[in-house]
Design a protein that fits this description.
Blueprint: E1 14-18, H1 22-28, H2 33-54, E2 58-65, H3 73-96, E3 99-104, H4 112-124, E4 131-139, H5 141-157, H6 168-172, E5 185-188, E6 207-210, H7 220-231, H8 241-245
Parallel strand pairs: 1-2, 1-5, 2-4, 3-4, 5-6
């Protein structure tokens, strides 16, 4: 699929991606898993470029989950070093594309050297307006929910809110994604058919697109394929098809 095949009037405002398949891609080529993560940067670049060209306003990438801290230390160390390199290499590109970088997750767990590079890039791109790129780092939906409930309980104990006034919007305002709209489209690569503890609250009405493509092989055309497929669907949000068509 090409950019010109996309209906610019029906582009998803927020696309989330589970970037799966790096390790398997490397193993197929008889390399260590970190080799796949290194080659995944090209796919990230392509996804960002395709999203900006399509008119997407928010792109959230599931970069490192809280569960990923349980991986072998060698792989974790390699990923943190790769994060530094990617930020250093891609900041110029983000500026050229007018993309703002932000993060969600327990980033205090990120090693200081990586975290400081990340904060520098967030500051450097803070005035950009074409699109917001959100990296979910040291993130999981259950961690996010527990954090939100902890804050709600604290505010209730200190009299800032009462149980009777808590609504869906109350919880939404305590989530890490409170400044972003819910994802319209989720793309997962790697052939797996699950959402892996990612944005569970936010994806109540998200359209899912699963691809067998391993993430390092993901290109702009694959992004356009997903958006094109999204545009063929009718989003009803609990209504009937006739109601939506009116």
């Amino acid at each position: 699929m090409k950019l010109e095949d996309i209906d610019k009037n029906r582009v998803p405002q927020h696309v989330a991606i589970i970037m799966d398949g790096n390790g398997r891609w490397a193993q197929k080529q008889s390399h260590r898993r970190i080799f796949g993560h290194q080659h995944a940067i090209k796919a990230v670049h392509e996804a960002v470029e395709a999203a900006v060209a399509s008119g997407v306003k928010y792109l959230t990438l599931y970069t490192f989950s809280t569960e990923n801290w349980n991986r072998p230390q060698e792989e974790i160390d390699g990923l943190m070093e790769l994060l530094i390199k990617a930020i250093r290499d891609e900041t110029k590109t983000l500026m050229e594309y007018n993309v703002r970088l932000e993060t969600i997750g327990d980033t205090q767990r990120i090693p200081e050297r990586s975290r400081l590079k990340l904060l520098d890039c967030i500051k450097d791109t803070s005035a950009n307006t074409a699109m917001t790129l959100v990296l979910a780092l040291s993130y999981s939906a259950r961690w996010e929910t527990a954090e939100a409930l902890r804050q709600i309980c604290t505010d209730a104990r200190e009299g800032r809110i009462t149980p009777e006034t808590i609504t869906e919007d109350t919880l939404r305002n305590y989530l890490a994604t409170r400044n972003y709209p819910d994802p319209d489209l989720l793309i997962r690569t790697g052939g797996e058919l699950r959402i892996s503890n990612f944005l569970l609250w936010q994806m109540a009405y998200t359209e899912f697109y699963f691809s067998d493509q391993l993430w390092p092989d993901f290109r702009k055309e694959d992004f356009f394929d997903a958006v094109y497929d999204y545009q063929s669907r009718q989003r009803r949000f609990g209504k009937t098809g006739d109601q939506v068509a009116k």
